[in-house]
Amino acid sequence: MPLTVDLRSDTLTRPTPEMRAAMFAAELGDDVFGEDPTVNLLEAKVAALLGKEAGLFVPSGTMANQIAIRCTTQPGDEVILESGAHPFHYEAGGAAVISGVTLRLVPGNRGVLDPDMVRDAVRPPNVHHAPARLLSVENTANRGGGTVTPVATCAALTEVAHQAGLLAHLDGARLWNATVAVGAPPSAFTAGFDVVSVCFSKGLGAPVGSAVVGSARLIEHARRVRKMLGGGMRQAGVLAGACVYALDHHIGRLAEDHRRARTLWEGLTELGFSASAPETNMIYVEVPDAPKLASRLGQEGVRAIALAWARLRLVTHLDVDDAQIAAAIAAFGRVRG
Fold this sequence. Notes:
4-stranded antiparallel sheet
């Protein structure tokens, strides 16, 4: 059996031995009572990193996004997002069920919104319209190919939102990749946003966990919404310990994932495959029959996801090394031949 190279997602990362040790050593308490010291440490740490007053540890990125939407809207409101945004494609209609809002989609450039197009999407007050209340920006953009919304564009988008009377949410599930790609601190991206969600279980390698950060008042509301959604956890420090370790040790190493994605892209283009150059850790390959190619690659020991009939996604991460990248390129060469 050939070497297995799993490029389906960076959610496949497993805790390193050092992270497991940090989990084992974490000091624990009951987090629903606010008494887990490791959770409290994580929440304070991530809030400080992102330049916000307070943070809330939650089980998943989807819950983090849904809490952010629920805390910034009322039923009947409209949320403006890029057409490939995660809350529209991958959150099971949660915004409609949990918050009672509608989603207004704006096309972007590989997932990056144009502030002028967002301004044009905000309709004037009218009894016939759902009132726009929130702008949600995904950075990096998954369906855009792991593209980065630049710091200046983030600032322009939040300015447009606030001028129009909207709040602004940053879906920063892969914000850490963006910070490493452009060499800017996380707080530079998040400065203008009212609420931010981030994930620890993708490229950072934690087994579980995301966070919502914002003002102390918003996070107080978010804590109640988390409880309502069943997201309160007890001795959650065993999980938060992994996230603290990830923040301390795994952000800088994302540069390795980006380098390997570039190496993989170069190898694929040399073989004649069509793909845009990666900005972070994702490559989208345009092929005639993506499901068929994914199946053939699986037989060669390479796992990939066909996101559409003609689009294959490859994601580098903590558990993919240089030898596996070389093996993946060789497998693509065999299936092409």
